[in-house]
């Protein structure tokens, strides 16, 4: 998807889960005031695939992004304290925000929260099961607590000084579909701080 205005999500209230307990509220646009931000919108902290993909995304992107001054944050759509504690820092050592009204998830879904069709889990040949097998090699503890079918994805928003535009919306098309790292890196390589 091409560039679009971040105005629709600028005033979204995000709650920073500092120390995974203290809850400080921010408007989303404060995160991209001075630097670009990559938002990883997580489906569910206890999910085996979400834990695996979060760790992969962090391990592959964070070192590069930090050196470029680009922020990488995780956003959850429901706050279950025990789940967040089990998820962080093991699978996501960085900042985690709670989008109480699911505004970023709605933006990613074109105005509505997107939900997965659970039928793919019943097809033993679906790519979902290949991803689960791969995830099981790295994630030993997982659960089924919380809303299971809200889809996540990735949003990249440029810094306010460089227009504050949404540079990429990458929607999770179905459960288990990992974010495309090449697409993310391609967009990030075009930012002024990467040149």
TrEMBL record:
Record-linked Pfam families: AhpC-TSA_2 (PF13911)
Principal location listed in the UniProt entry: cytoplasm
Keywords for the protein's UniProt record, in alphabetical order: Cytoplasm, Redox-active center
The keyword Cytoplasm appears for this protein: yes
GO cellular component: cytoplasm
Protein name: Peroxiredoxin-like 2A
Subcellular location as annotated: Cytoplasm
Phylogenetic lineage: Eukaryota, Viridiplantae, Chlorophyta, core chlorophytes, Chlorophyceae
Family, similarity comment: Belongs to the peroxiredoxin-like PRXL2 family. PRXL2A subfamily.
């Amino acid at each position: 998807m091409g560039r679009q205005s971040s105005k629709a999500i600028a005033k979204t209230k995000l709650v920073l889960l500092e120390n995974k307990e203290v809850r400080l509220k921010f408007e989303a646009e404060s995160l991209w005031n001075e630097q670009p931000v990559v938002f990883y919108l997580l489906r569910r902290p206890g999910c085996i695939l979400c834990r695996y993909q979060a760790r992969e995304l962090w391990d592959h992107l964070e070192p590069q992004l930090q050196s470029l001054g680009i922020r990488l944050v995780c956003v959850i759509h429901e706050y279950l304290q025990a789940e967040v504690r089990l998820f962080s820092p093991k699978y996501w050592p960085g900042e985690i925000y709670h989008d109480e009204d699911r505004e970023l998830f709605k933006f990613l879904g074109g105005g509505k929260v997107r939900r997965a069709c659970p039928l793919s889990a019943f097809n033993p040949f679906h790519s979902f099961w290949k991803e689960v097998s791969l995830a099981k090699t790295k994630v030993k503890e997982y659960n089924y607590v919380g809303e299971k079918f809200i889809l996540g994805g990735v949003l990249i928003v440029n810094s306010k000084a460089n227009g504050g535009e949404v540079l990429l919306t990458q929607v999770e098309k179905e459960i288990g579909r990992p974010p495309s790292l090449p697409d993310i890196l391609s967009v990030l390589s075009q930012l002024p701080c990467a040149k």
